[in-house]
Amino acid sequence: MKYKDIVNRNLVNLTNCENEPIHIPGSIQPHGFLIGIDEESRKITFCSGNSAGYCGLSYDFLLGKTFGEAFGDENRTIVTDYVQNFGLDSSVPQKLFINNKNFLCSIHKSGPTFIIEAEPENPETNLQENLYKQSVKFVSYMNTTSTLKELCELVAKGTREITGYDRVMIYRFDKEYNGEVFAESCREDIEPFLGLHYPHSDIPPQARELYMRNLLRLITDINYTPVPIYTIADASDKDLDLSISVLRSTSPIHVEYLQNMGVGATLTISLIHRGRLWGLIACHHYSQKNLSPEIRLAAQLQGQFITSQIDVRQSNEEYEVARKTNISLEKLTAFNLPPVIESFKIISISPELLRVCNAAGVSLLINGNVYKNGLAPSDDDIRYLANWCSEYSNDSTFFTDKLVNFISDKKSLCEQISGINYHSLGNGNAIIWYRPETLTEVNWGGDPEKAIIRDSRGLHPRNSFNLWKQVVKFRSNDWQQPELNAAANYAHALQKQIGLYLISLEEERYRKLSEQLKESNAELENINWISTHDLQEPLRKIQFFASMLLTSETEILPEKAFESVKRMSSSANRMQTLLIDILKYTRIKYNAESFEDIDLNQILDEVLTDMKDTIGESKAFVKSEKLPVVNGVSFLLKQLFMNLIQNSLKYADENRAPVIQILLASERKKNIHAQNQFCHEITFSDNGIGFSEQYSESIFNIFTRLHGHAEYKGSGVGLALCKKIMQNHGGTIIAEGRPDEGAVFTLFFPCKDEEPATV
C-alpha cells in the first residue's frame, strides 16, 4: 500500500495573504498527534507522521484500519459514547488510554471525517479546582467593576494567573477590524502594548473567519517544525479541513509575524458578540510554552465570561448618554407649536435639538427653506448634502463619523463637518445633525501602511513594531446608539409636525378656493336670475306681437310672412320653456327645504292626476306597484316622476300605444351604482323609440338631445334635472335603452337603515 502526505506547499508562495488557504495546511503542530476516521467505512484515512512517537503506532500501520482494530474496542466504545453524550461541538476533552499512556483527546467532524487530536495528559492539572476558582473570581469581577474596561483589565490579569503567559492582552476591534489593545497584564520587565493599535491587515478576513469558528488557538513553539498528515495514495487533491482543529499548523506568514515580534508561544481566545468578532484574548510568551487541554478550557471560560458581560457593561456605559438624550427628546416632543412655517424656526434654535444627539450643529430643510443652528455649513451645502443623502440612503437615514469617505471631492466641507446624522422627512424635507472634525492621535504598533511587505520571495509581515504615531483627520466622534435612537425618534415626531403643517396649507388653499367658488356661484346666480327673469319680458313681447299677427285676418300678411311669424312664435315658446327648465335646475342646487319621509305612492298619484289629460291624449297605459317611503323633498320627487313620465310620452313610438311600468325590486340590496349601500331600486320602463346604449351616460348631460327640434320638442334639461334630484337625495339614476324597443330608467334611493330586508 502506498501513502502520501497532504501538505499544502503553495502556502509560502502566495502573492496575496488574504487568499491564503490557512484552513487546509495539510500539517499539524508537534505537541500532539491526529487521526481522521471515515464516517462511512469507519477506517482511519488520515494520520499525522508523529503518531509513533506518542503511541508507538506509525501512520503506515494505522492507515486503513478501523479505530477498534488500531486502538482496541474499549477505546472505540469510549469515543462512541462521548459523541453520543456530548456531541461533536463539545470543548470538554475525552481521556483515552493507549499503549499504557493517558491522552486527552479533542473530537470533532470535518466533512465526512471524524478527527481525533490526542495530547499527553498532565496528571498535575486539576480541572475541577481551576473551574471552581474561576467561578469565584467571576462573581468577584461582577461585583467590583462597573465599566467594561475595568472588567477586561481584571480578566487579563486572571487569565495570566491561570495560564502563566508573559503577556495577556484584551484586543478589541473597531468597525473596520483595526485592533486596539484595550486591556493588558504583562511582566514588569517587558514593554507594555496597552493602547497600541494594529491594522486590520494583521488579521486577514479568512483568519477572522476561523476565529469565529474555532474559539481557541494555540502555538506552543513558534519555531516548531510542521508535522505532515498522511493518507492512502488512492486519490488526488485529497485535503483535510482543519478549521476547528486544535493542532492545526499555523500560516507561515503569521509565524514570521510572531517571530519578528520576538514571541515564542501564543494562545488566542475569540470574543464573539452578537454574531461578530468583537475581539481576542491574546496571550504571548517569549519562550516555548504548552498548556494542557484542561488549562486551555479554563482560559477559554474567561473569554466566555467577557462575552456574556459585554452587553451589560456597554449598557451601563450608554445609560447616562441615553438618559440625557431622552430628557432632550421629551422636551422637544412636548413643544405645542402651531402648524405654521414659523414653528420650524423656533424648533431649529432650540438648544434641545442639539442635545438630543449631542451634535454641534443642526439644519432643517422644510419646503425649500433652510433653518439652522450651531455648527452648520452654508445653505447651498446643506441643500447639496440633503440631496446626496436622499439619493444615497434611498430617502431614508444615513450617518457617518467620516463623511470624507463618501464625498472625497468636498474636503473643505468635510473638514468643517466630519460627521453627519441625516433623516429624510419626506417630500424633499430633511433634518441633518453635524459634528466637527476631531483630531485624534493614534499610536500604532508599527506603520500601518507597511503591514505587509512584498519582495522577490513573496509577501512578508512587517519586521518593525516600533511606536508609530498617526494624526487622524476628517473624523468626528462616533455616533453612539442612544444618540442615534433619540435622533430617529425626534425625526419621526418632526415628520408628524410637517404633516400637520402641510395639512394646514391644504386647508388654507381649499378655503381660498371655496371663497372663489362662492363668489363664482354668486355671479352665476346673478346671470341665472337675468336669464330666467330679465329675459322673460322681451320674450313675452315677442310672443304677444306674434300672437296678434297670427290671430289677425290672414289677408293682412302674405303667406310667406305668415309662416315666418309662426316660426318666430315657436322659437320664442321654446326659449321660454328652456328658461323655465334652467330655473328649475338651479332651484335644486340652492333649495334649502328640509328632508322628510315621503310616500312615493302619494307622489305618483299626484303626478298622474296632474298629467291625466296628457296621458289621455297619448292613449298611454301606466302600470305601477306599491312604492316605498323614502327621505326627501316632496316637490322635487314630484318633479322627478313627472319628468320621467313626460320623457316616456315624448319619445313614444307612433306605431303603438305607450305603456309605462313603474316597478319596485323585490329586495333591498347593496348596489354598486350608489356607493355600494342598501337601496330601494325603482324602474321606469316604456315601449317607446328607445336609444342606443352608447348614450346611456351622456343622456343625463344638460342640454343633450338625441333627436332634432323638428322631431321632438324639449330643452334637453329634463333628464339632467332628474340626475340632479337623485344626487340631491343621496341616490343615483342609470339608463338602459334599445332602439325601437324602449328605455328603462332605474332609480336607487338609499334605505333609511343599513340592514337588507324583503319588501
TrEMBL record:
Histidine kinase domain boundaries: 530-753
EC number of this enzyme: 2.7.13.3
Family: In the N-terminal section; belongs to the phytochrome family.
Top EC class for this record: transferase
Keywords: Chromophore, Coiled coil, Kinase, Phosphoprotein, Photoreceptor protein, Receptor, Sensory transduction, Transferase
Protein name listed in UniProt: histidine kinase
Coiled coil: 503-530
Cited InterPro entries: GAF, GAF-like_dom_sf, HATPase_C_sf, HATPase_dom, His_kinase_dom, HisK_dim/P_dom, HisK_dim/P_sf, PAS-like_dom_sf
GO molecular function list: phosphorelay sensor kinase activity; photoreceptor activity
Gene Ontology biological process terms from the UniProt entry: detection of visible light; regulation of DNA-templated transcription
Domain of life, source organism: Bacteria
Residue ranges of domain Phytochrome chromophore attachment site in the record: 147-304
Signal sequence residues: none
Catalysed reactions, as listed in the record: ATP + protein L-histidine = ADP + protein N-phospho-L-histidine
